[in-house]
Design a protein that fits this description.
Beta Polymerase, domain 2, 5-stranded mixed beta sheet, 5 strands, globular, GrpB domain, predicted nucleotidyltransferase, UPF0157 family, transferase activity, NT_sf, GrpB/CoaE, transferase
């Protein structure tokens, strides 16, 4: 059973991302266009579950399944699309997860959504603080129920995503043009 653990930001998370991204780059090779650190561990100061979320963007999503065995050598479990069409999802660590890998093909709309969410928090510390408080509250209320924790965040996450996408589409960040 997965426990709900929300912890303060750890300055080692960017380094853990870099190490794992290098390993993924070696496996995926020329299929990889970019590899992004996403999710709460990618935002300095944000409380998070201590799971590094990584998003490689690739040329052809249909070629990714051929790397499943190589991913297994790194300790990943291949989960296919895992309820999100056009994604390949891998997780590492079983019930004590350390990493999630969300692979998308260039042009997939989920890429912009993930990056906008991350960058919105990086530039809106007040919103990040509110989100941290929500996660801490939900973790305290549902320490043994990951589904309830996730469901408790759902409405807020969707609202933040909408605000983040509008913010990016208005050109709040020069690099946001590449998201969509």
């Amino acid at each position: 059973m997965r426990k709900v653990e929300v912890v303060p930001y750890d300055t080692l998370w960017p380094f853990q991302f870099d190490i794992e991204a290098q390993k993924l780059q070696r496996i995926l090779g020329g299929e990889t266009l970019d590899i992004y650190h996403i999710g709460s561990t990618s935002v300095k100061g944000l409380y998070a579950k201590p799971v590094i979320d990584i998003m490689p963007v690739v040329r052809d999503i249909n070629r990714i399944d051929q790397f499943n065995r190589d991913m297994e050598t790194l300790g990943y479990e291949a989960k296919g699309e895992n309820d999100m069409a056009g994604r390949r999802f891998f997780r590492k660590g079983g019930d004590h997860r350390t990493h999630h890998v969300h692979i998308f093909e260039k042009g997939n709309t989920h890429i912009g959504r993930h990056l906008a969410f991350r960058d919105f928090f990086r530039h809106h510390s007040y919103e990040a603080d509110n989100y941290s408080r929500l996660k801490l509250d939900l973790a305290a209320r549902f320490p043994d129920d990951m589904d309830a924790y996730i469901k408790g965040k759902d409405r807020v996450v969707k609202e933040i995503e909408r605000n983040a996408l509008v913010w990016c589409q208005k050109g709040a960040l020069p690099e946001s043009e590449g998201y969509f």
